[in-house]
Amino acid sequence: MKKLNIASIPGDGVGHEVVPSGEQVLKTIADIHGGLAFEFTSFPWSCNYYLEHGSMMPENGLDQLKPFDAIFLGAVGDLNLVPDHISLWGLLIKIRREFEQSINMRPAKLLKGVTSPLANPKDFDLLVVRENSEGEYSSIGGKIHQGEDEVAIQNAVFSRKATERAMRFAFELAGKRRQHVTSATKSNGIVYSMPFWDDVFKEVSTDYPSIQTDSQHIDALAAFFVTQPERFDVIVASNLFGDILTDVGAAIMGSIGIAPAANINVNGKYPSMFEPVHGSAPDIVGKGLANPIGQIWTAKMMLDHFGEIELGAKLLDVIEETTTAGIMTADIGGKHSTEEVTNEIIHRLKSL
Ligand code: NAD
Ligand code: IPM
Ligand code: MN
């Protein structure tokens, strides 16, 4: 019996609505498999936790998480309770960094049964590899002067190690896919980090002669995501560019509510973390409107991570059967609730 211990952090907002969906689906999958079991331990770390304890997680929070096989997270952030930079840096970004989850994998493809907002989309299937530990998300900077002369300075950090790591990861993935990597750059406007990014991309690409490459400025690339998403296979992007690009990727699929993601600890020292692309969706919280597919597809990425490729493929098939049958939440044009969509997926898994 392969038993997987998962730390579950619903976090804030709709995290509490979609994480239980993901957990139930994973438990159902494990029952079908026979030799697999998931045990979930839930942690209440969130903005409400902050109000009670003055921090987003206990001081030894990371020690508590470390022994788990993976972390399954919903979303973090409730602006009514805690400023975002405090809640996110105190939990989500803290885990990504301290657990060296330096790669964020975010696929986007047309799901059967889901209408893309693109008028006549060709079949696309792309994967953004987002550098997840540094870049534009740096804590180096500050403010100088006051009053009308006040200036905020925010530095970006691009280390050779992290840049190269993200790029090699992208090339390795492309080798198992359609043999193409696109680099998201902006070396026409950003004079230190992006020319460096381009140099490292060129260097790394020489180690993968069979993989085709191209480089696109991030602004044009974002537009191509809308006009020709089918031309992309793997895209490697810095932290901020990857963040923005993957919301565009989610949008062209039909909704941010269906987009999955995986924060991967490449060196195997710490657990990886699985959390969808979307946030806590304060505008729909408590209404049964949250699409559980982002979290459930994220669960599929967790199955893949544990080597359960066939089960992962089955789960994605069942998600698509469900959307094809019209059992969907309102964000993708349906009229069903979070619970109804989840139950349908579970029901279909059980009858496999
Ligand atoms: P958001 O993703 O929460 O919401 C953007 C829009 O998408 C909203 O209209 C929302 O209703 C919709 N949406 C999101 N998830 C959905 C789902 N599952 N089903 C249907 N519709 C869904 O982004 P935001 O409004 O910019 O952020 C809200 C809060 O979440 C902020 O505090 C932000 O910092 C945080 N956030 C957290 C994460 C994370 O924890 N990974 C990611 C993004 C934003
Ligand atoms: C994401 C989110 C986070 C990010 C925020 C909430 C800090 O947008 O996971 O995409 O920018 O990484
Ligand atoms: Mn984002």
TrEMBL record:
It is an enzyme of class 1 (oxidoreductase). Residues 5-345 form the Isopropylmalate dehydrogenase-like domain. Keywords: Lyase, Manganese, Metal-binding, NAD, Oxidoreductase. Its cofactor is Mn(2+); Mg(2+). One of its GO terms (molecular function) is D-malate dehydrogenase (decarboxylating) (NAD+) activity. Belongs to the isocitrate and isopropylmalate dehydrogenases family. This is D-malate dehydrogenase (decarboxylating). It comes from Alkalicoccobacillus murimartini.
